[in-house]
Amino acid sequence: MHCPFCRSSDSRVVDSRLTDDGSAIRRRRQCPECGKRFTTVETTSLSVIKRSGVAEPFSRSKVISGVRKACQGRPVTEDDLALLAQDVEEAVRASGVAEIDAHEVGLAILGPLQKLDQVAYLRFASVYQGFDSLEDFEKAIEKLRLEAENAAARVSSGKQRPLTAT
Ligand SMILES: [Zn+2]
User: How many CA atoms, within 13 angstroms, populate the side-chain half-sphere of residue 67?
Assistant: First the structure.
């Protein structure tokens, strides 16, 4: 990698450390020509396999454009979408895979989207989880309702979150 200051093609690694979430390595480098230091970040390449079988690099903007439609008319800001895409990328990278199906990226969006906006979540889930009947919607809404009631109960009683998986 070229030194960003003098374009020398050589550099020496002076420090390497893993980022807190373990998804990347930061290397502190020093240029032997000009002596300046710079940082490089190494992450695994992450490919998304589309339904057609074509692989393309994971892209946060693709996540955002996929979710934006479901968020139409909802009180969701661009910042909300950017944060959601970041959460999705972190979740996918934390799973440690190098390739992921586009469909699985869709599934990874569901959790953060549910926290962001429940109507957008239902729209999105109906597509990605293949809802094909009113019953599927009823089940999903019932689940959201139970979770909302649990959350309200936690707030009013001041008790800790129950240890059940959600
Ligand atoms: Zn240099």
Answer: 35
C-alpha of residue 14 to centroid of ligand 1, in Å: 14
For 34-69, what is the HEC assignment? CCCEEEEEEECCCEEECCCCCEEECCHHHHHHHHHC
Ligand 1 centre distance from Cα of residue 2 (Å)? 8
pTM for the model: 0.68
Distance from Cα 13 to the centre of ligand 1, integer Å: 13
- pLDDT of residue 136 exceeding 90: yes
pLDDT at 158 over 70: no
Angle at 147 between CA 141 and CA 152, to 5 degrees: 125
pLDDT digits (tens, 9 = 90+) for 86-133: 999 988 888 878 899 998 898 899 999 999 999 999 999 998 888 999
CA distance 78 to 153: 31
Distance 55 CA to ligand 1 centre (A): 36
